[in-house]
Amino acid sequence: MRIAVPNKGRLHEPTIDLLERAGLHLENGADRKLYADTVDPDVTVLFARAADIPEYVADGAADLGITGFDQVQEARVDNVDELLDLEFGRCRLVLAAPEDGDITSVDDLAGKIVATEFPNITADFFADTGVEPDIVEVSGATELTPHVEMADAIVDITSTGTTLKMNRLAIVDEVLSSSVRLFGRDDVLDDPKIEEVRTALSSVKHAEGKRYLMMNVPRTELDDVRDVIPGLGGPTVMDIADETDDEGKVAVHAVVNETDVFETITDVKAAGASDILVTEIERLVE
Ligand SMILES: Nc1ncnc2c1ncn2[C@@H]1O[C@H](COP(=O)(O)OP(=O)(O)OP(=O)(O)O)[C@@H](O)[C@H]1O
Ligand SMILES: O=P(O)(O)OC[C@H]1O[C@H](OP(=O)(O)OP(=O)(O)O)[C@H](O)[C@@H]1O
Ligand SMILES: [Mg+2]
Question: Which EC number applies (predicted)?
Answer without folding.
Answer: 2.4.2.17
